[in-house]
Amino acid sequence: MAQPLSNPTDVNSEMNAQDFMLRQFLGKHVFITLGQVVAVEGEFIDVRPMVMGVAADGSPVEHEVIYNLPVWRLQGGSNAVIMPPHVGDIGFLGICDRDISAVKATRQAAMPGSKRTHNYADAIWLGGVLNGAPVQFVEFADNQIRVISPWKVEISAPEGIVNASKSFTVNSPKIALNGDAAVSQGLNVTGQSELSGGAQIGGIDFGYHVHSGVKSGGSTTQGPQ
User: Fold this and answer.
1) Domain covering 32-128 in this structure, CATH number
2) What single string gives the DSSP state of each residue in 116-181?
3) Distance CA 133, CA 25 (A)
4) pLDDT tens digits for range 94-125
5) Quick one: which of 88, 121, 126, 142 has the fewest CB in 10 Å?
6) Which part of the chain has CATH 2.40.50.230?
């Protein structure tokens, strides 16, 4: 059976009447809600609000998809953390109080595109919530920062510096250094070393130097002393 839009108590006093009018006003406007991503198009996404409407008979009313929503990004100047949404993500939708279509199109200050207010069409994706556990993440844990990826971590810059006051450890079955390497302190190598390109020790070629005052013969040298 259909539910009435108002009850007798809504108008039996001035306070109840004002409360009823306020509820009616808020029911026609949206401010913030949850949505799910259904499509991703570059910097914009399509989202379906997840909290359904309710018909007069109490049945659920599914929302239509909201198209071309801008995505909030943690950014200052030309510096940003880029983390594009994926289809299926759940997150917050912040609904602007006026029509933002002109600002979206020009990225400049502009008049409202229409007289609509607090409309789903003027929503902004504010980020994920209620999603599953991530497999690639940055974690600020107690006394440490962890960068976890099951695939690849790449750092690109013209210069790089790592300052570690106690120690710096790299654990990997294979380590490649593509470039000249300088060691200003001691170097301790406990495994087997191969120097296919030759080496110099104290300015002397280690593989091809000669010793003077040695007579040729058929004997071999003894072990190093």
Assistant:
1) 2.40.50.230
2) --S-GGGEEEEEE-SPPPPSSEEEEETTEEEEE-SS------S------SS------S-----S--
3) 38
4) 999 999 999 999 999 999 999 999 999 999 99
5) 142
6) 32-128
